[in-house]
C-alpha cells in the first residue's frame, strides 16, 4: 500500500492544471464580450487577501517589512475551501507539516522542527498536543516559519502560529450556515455582531458552531461545540476596552493510537472502514478562555496595550488502542489500555507600547513590553488491567469487558511553570531604502514538579528548575530595491528549556540553535499580490529523545547537533480582479552532524519531506456565469519515513486534489460544494513506528454549505 517514493511530478502537473483551470475559463469568459466591468483594486482588496500581520512583532507590518518567512491563511481562503479547524488551515499553509499525536490532537512542523508556540491576537500561550480549535471564531491564521523568540519567550525552532480573533463591527452584520456532507457531517454556524448603542461606542459579537461527524471507521464519531462572545467599548476617544469569552468542547469515540504496521514496517492490508477498538473508547475535552484588553492611542503615533488571558483546559480519555506491530502470518496484535485526565490552567499577561521616535533626523519605530505566564497542570494516568488484550485483525472484537485500574498503578503529578520577560524591538530607518531591525528578550523561567504523595507509580521525583535572565537576541535587514522588490536577511536564536529528564533526574539541557535566512520579497500588481523567495539554514542541538536503555520509566537523552536547510517560494493575492491564488513550494534537507544519543523513533527527518507543494486558486466567473466561482487546491509531497530499531516505515510521495464551487444567488445567499481528496487517494498522512501512531488520510468527502448573510 506504499506509494512510489519518487516525487509525484506527473500527478502534481495534472493537479496543478486542474487547480489553475480558472485561467482558461477566464479567457473563454472574456471572449465575445463587448463590455466588461473593470474592478479597480483597493486597499480593502489587499487587506482581505494579504492583510498586514503583527506576528513576530507587535506592530502591523506588510510582508515586505518582515525579514522572515510569513504565510497567511486568509478568511477568504478559509471560506472558499471550507476549512473547519486549525489543523486543516495549517495543512493549507506553505511549508507546514501536520502530524497526529492521537486521533484528536496534532503536532505541527516547519523546516524540520516542531512549532510549539501559539499566539492568540499576538499574546503567547503554551501549546501542548493541541486539539485544533474550530476556525469559526477566527478571522485568519498567520504563520511565521523559523524562530521567533522576540515575542514568544524562548520560542521554538519551527516557528509561531498566530490566531486572529473576529472582532465586533460598527455596522450590524449577521450570518448563518448549514453544512451537510459525507460521513454524516452536520454543521450549524451563526455569527452576529454590531453596535449596541446609537453612538456605536459599544459593540458586540457572538459566534457559535455545532458539529457532528463520523470517522471513516464504522462506529467512531465526534461532536464539537464552539461558542465565542466579545464586547468592545470606546471608553474615551483614544481608549478602547475589550472583554471576551470562548468555550470549546469535544466528545469522541475513535482509534486513539491509529494503526500499527506489519513487523517489517509495511502498511496493513485492511478494510479502512473497520473499527479496531473496544466499544468503551471515549474522550472528552473542554477549553474555557476569557480575556480582557485595554488599548490607548497616545499623541504622536504611540500606542499602548495591556492584555490578560485566563484559560482552563480539561481532558479525559479511556482507551484500548492498537499498539503492537502485527504478525503477518497470524494477523494478530494487541490493544493497550489506559486512562488519563489532565487539568491545565493558564494565566497570561502581556503589556507593550509602540510608536515612532526621531534620531539623527530620521523617523524610527520602537516597541517595548513585558510579559508574564503562569501554568498549573495536574495530570493523572494509569494503565488498565488487563494492560494488553490480544486481537485478530481479521475478525476484531469490540465487545470487550470494561477494564479496571489498580490503585498501585495510578500516577498523579502537578507541574507549575512561571515565565516572566522583558522585550524590546527597534526598527531603524538607516536610509530611505534600508531598515535595520534589532531586538532582544530577557526571560526568567521557573518550573516545579510535585508528585502525589499516594499515587506515584511512575516514581516521579520532586524537582525545581530555574533559568534567570536568558537573553534571546534578534537582528534583521530590509533593503527596498524599488517600490516593488525588497531584499532581506535575518539572524535569530533558539533557547528553549525542556521538561523531560534523564535517568539521574536531571533536566535535559535546553534546546539551543540559530537560524540564518535571506531572501527577496515583492508586492506585485499594485500591492494586490505578495511573493517571496527565501533561503534558510537552521541548526539545533540538545533535542530530547527517549533513552533506548530505559524500558520501564520515561527517561530521555540530549541528542546531537542537527541542521535543516533549504529554500521556499510563495505567492498569494488577487492576480486578477476575479482570480485569487495562494501557492507555495518548500525544499528541505535535514541531517545530523553528531549524535550524543540514539535517534530512535524521533529520527530528525521523520516528518520532513524533501519537497512540499501547496496550491489554492479561486476564480469568480462573469457574463452568463456571473455569481459562480470555482476553486481548487493541491497538496503534493515527496516521501517521508521513520526508522525504529532498524525497521523503516515509509509513505511514498503523493498528491491530493480538492475542488469546489460556490453560487451566489443574491449578495446575501450562496450555496457551496466542496470535495476533498477528489481522486480518493489512499495514503498515510502521519506515520511513526511499526507499533502505533500511523494515521490514514481522509477518503474522498463532499460538503454542501448554504450561507445566508445580512
Automatic annotation (TrEMBL):
<feature type="domain" description="TonB-dependent receptor plug">
    <location>
        <begin position="63"/>
        <end position="160"/>
    </location>
</feature>
<dbReference type="InterPro" id="IPR039426">
    <property type="entry name" value="TonB-dep_rcpt-like"/>
</dbReference>
<dbReference type="GO" id="GO:0015891">
    <property type="term" value="P:siderophore transport"/>
</dbReference>
<keyword id="KW-0998">Cell outer membrane</keyword>
<keyword id="KW-0813">Transport</keyword>
<dbReference type="InterPro" id="IPR037066">
    <property type="entry name" value="Plug_dom_sf"/>
</dbReference>
<protein>
    <submittedName>
        <fullName>TonB-dependent siderophore receptor</fullName>
    </submittedName>
</protein>
<dbReference type="InterPro" id="IPR000531">
    <property type="entry name" value="Beta-barrel_TonB"/>
</dbReference>
<keyword id="KW-0472">Membrane</keyword>
<dbReference type="InterPro" id="IPR012910">
    <property type="entry name" value="Plug_dom"/>
</dbReference>
<keyword id="KW-1134">Transmembrane beta strand</keyword>
<keyword id="KW-0675">Receptor</keyword>
<dbReference type="GO" id="GO:0015344">
    <property type="term" value="F:siderophore uptake transmembrane transporter activity"/>
</dbReference>
<keyword id="KW-0812">Transmembrane</keyword>
<dbReference type="Pfam" id="PF07715">
    <property type="entry name" value="Plug"/>
</dbReference>
<dbReference type="InterPro" id="IPR010105">
    <property type="entry name" value="TonB_sidphr_rcpt"/>
</dbReference>
<keyword id="KW-0798">TonB box</keyword>
<dbReference type="Pfam" id="PF00593">
    <property type="entry name" value="TonB_dep_Rec_b-barrel"/>
</dbReference>
<comment type="similarity">
    <text>Belongs to the TonB-dependent receptor family.</text>
</comment>
<dbReference type="GO" id="GO:0038023">
    <property type="term" value="F:signaling receptor activity"/>
</dbReference>
<keyword id="KW-0732">Signal</keyword>
<dbReference type="GO" id="GO:0009279">
    <property type="term" value="C:cell outer membrane"/>
</dbReference>
<feature type="signal peptide">
    <location>
        <begin position="1"/>
        <end position="29"/>
    </location>
</feature>
<feature type="domain" description="TonB-dependent receptor-like beta-barrel">
    <location>
        <begin position="258"/>
        <end position="678"/>
    </location>
</feature>
<dbReference type="InterPro" id="IPR036942">
    <property type="entry name" value="Beta-barrel_TonB_sf"/>
</dbReference>
Amino acid at each position: 500500500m506504499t506509494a512510489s517514493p519518487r516525487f509525484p511530478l506527473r500527478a502534481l502537473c495534472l493537479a496543478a492544471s486542474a487547480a489553475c483551470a480558472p485561467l482558461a475559463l477566464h479567457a473563454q469568459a472574456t471572449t465575445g464580450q463587448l463590455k466588461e466591468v473593470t474592478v479597480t483594486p483597493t486597499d480593502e482588496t489587499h487587506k482581505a487577501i494579504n492583510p498586514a500581520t503583527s506576528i513576530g512583532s507587535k506592530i502591523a507590518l506588510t510582508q515586505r517589512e518582515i525579514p522572515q518567512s510569513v504565510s497567511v491563511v486568509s478568511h477568504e481562503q478559509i471560506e472558499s475551501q471550507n476549512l473547519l479547524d486549525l489543523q486543516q488551515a495549517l495543512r493549507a499553509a506553505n511549508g507546514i507539516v501536520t502530524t497526529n499525536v492521537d486521533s484528536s490532537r496534532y503536532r505541527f512542523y516547519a523546516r524540520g522542527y516542531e512549532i510549539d508556540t501559539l499566539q492568540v491576537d499576538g499574546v503567547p500561550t503554551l501549546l501542548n498536543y493541541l486539539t485544533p480549535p474550530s476556525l469559526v471564531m477566527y478571522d485568519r491564521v498567520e504563520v511565521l516559519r523559523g524562530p521567533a523568540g522576540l515575542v514568544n519567550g524562548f520560542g521554538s525552532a519551527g516557528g509561531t502560529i498566530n490566531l486572529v480573533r473576529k472582532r465586533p463591527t460598527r455596522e450590524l452584520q449577521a450570518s448563518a450556515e448549514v453544512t451537510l456532507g459525507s460521513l454524516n457531517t452536520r454543521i450549524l454556524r451563526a455569527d452576529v455582531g454590531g453596535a449596541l448603542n446609537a453612538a456605536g461606542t459599544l459593540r458586540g459579537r457572538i459566534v457559535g458552531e455545532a458539529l457532528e461527524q463520523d470517522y471513516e471507521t464504522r462506529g467512531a464519531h465526534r461532536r464539537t461545540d464552539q461558542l465565542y462572545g466579545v464586547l468592545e467599548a470606546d471608553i474615551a476617544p483614544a481608549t478602547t476596552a475589550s472583554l471576551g469569552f470562548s468555550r470549546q468542547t469535544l466528545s469522541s469515540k475513535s482509534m486513539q493510537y491509529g494503526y500499527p504496521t506489519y513487523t517489517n514496517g509495511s502498511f496493513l492490508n485492511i478494510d479502512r472502514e473497520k473499527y479496531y477498538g473496544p466499544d468503551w473508547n471515549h474522550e472528552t475535552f473542554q477549553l474555557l478562555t476569557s480575556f480582557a484588553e485595554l488599548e490607548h492611542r497616545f499623541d504622536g503615533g504611540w500606542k499602548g496595550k495591556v492584555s490578560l488571558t485566563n484559560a482552563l483546559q480539561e481532558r479525559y480519555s479511556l482507551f484500548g488502542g492498537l499498539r503492537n506491530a502485527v504478525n503477518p502470518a497470524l494477523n494478530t496484535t494487541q490493544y493497550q489500555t489506559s486512562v488519563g485526565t489532565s487539568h491545565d490552567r493558564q494565566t497570561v499577561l502581556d503589556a507593550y507600547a509602540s510608536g515612532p521616535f526621531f534620531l539623527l533626523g530620521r523617523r524610527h519605530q520602537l516597541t517595548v513590553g513585558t510579559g508574564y505566564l503562569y501554568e498549573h497542570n495536574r495530570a493523572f494516568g494509569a494503565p488498565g488491567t488487563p494492560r494488553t488484550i490480544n486481537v485478530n485483525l481479521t475478525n476484531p472484537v469490540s465487545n470487550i469487558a470494561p477494564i479496571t485500574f489498580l490503585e498501585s498503578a495510578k500516577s498523579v503529578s502537578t507541574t507549575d511553570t512561571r515565565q516572566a520577560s522583558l522585550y524590546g524591538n527597534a526598527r531603524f530607518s538607516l536610509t530611505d531604502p534600508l531598515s535595520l531591525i534589532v531586538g532582544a528578550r530577557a526571560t526568567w523561567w521557573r518550573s516545579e514538579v510535585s508528585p502525589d504523595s499516594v499515587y506515584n507509580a511512575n516514581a516521579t521525583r520532586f524537582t525545581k528548575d530555574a533559568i534567570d535572565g536568558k537573553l534571546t537576541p534578534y537582528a534583521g535587514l530590509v533593503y527596498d530595491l524599488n517600490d516593488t522588490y525588497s531584499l532581506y536577511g535575518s539572524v535569530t536564536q533558539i533557547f528553549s528549556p525542556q521538561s523531560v529528564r534523564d535517568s539521574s533526574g536531571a533536566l535535559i539541557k535546553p534546546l539551543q540553535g540559530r537560524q540564518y535566512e535571506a531572501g527577496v520579497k515583492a508586492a506585485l500588481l499594485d500591492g494586490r499580490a505578495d511573493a517571496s523567495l527565501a533561503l534558510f539554514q537552521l541548526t539545533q542541538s540538545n533535542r530530547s529523545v527517549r533513552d533506548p536503555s530505559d524500558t520501564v520509566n520515561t527517561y530521555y537523552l540530549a541528542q546531537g547537533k542537527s541542521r535543516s536547510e533549504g529554500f521556499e517560494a510563495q505567492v498569494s493575492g488577487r492576480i486578477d480582479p476575479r482570480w485569487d491564488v495562494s501557492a507555495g513550494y518548500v525544499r528541505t534537507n535535514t541531517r545530523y552532524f553528531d549524535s550524543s544519543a540514539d535517534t530512535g523513533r524521533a529520527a530528525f527527518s521523520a516528518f520532513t519531506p524533501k519537497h512540499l507543494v501547496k496550491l489554492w486558486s479561486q476564480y469568480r466567473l462573469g457574463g452568463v456565469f456571473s455569481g459562480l466561482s470555482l476553486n481548487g487546491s493541491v497538496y503534493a509531497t515527496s516521501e517521508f519515513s521513520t526508522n525504529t530499531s532498524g525497521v523503516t516505515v515509509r509513505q511514498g510521495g503523493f498528491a491530493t486534489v480538492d475542488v469546489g464551487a460556490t453560487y451566489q444567488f443574491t449578495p446575501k445567499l450562496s450555496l457551496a460544494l466542496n470535495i476533498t481528496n477528489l481522486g480518493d487517494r489512499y495514503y498515510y498522512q502521519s506515520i511513526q513506528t511499526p507499533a502505533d501512531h500511523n494515521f490514514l488520510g481522509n477518503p474522498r468527502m463532499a460538503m454542501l454549505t448554504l450561507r445566508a448573510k445580512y
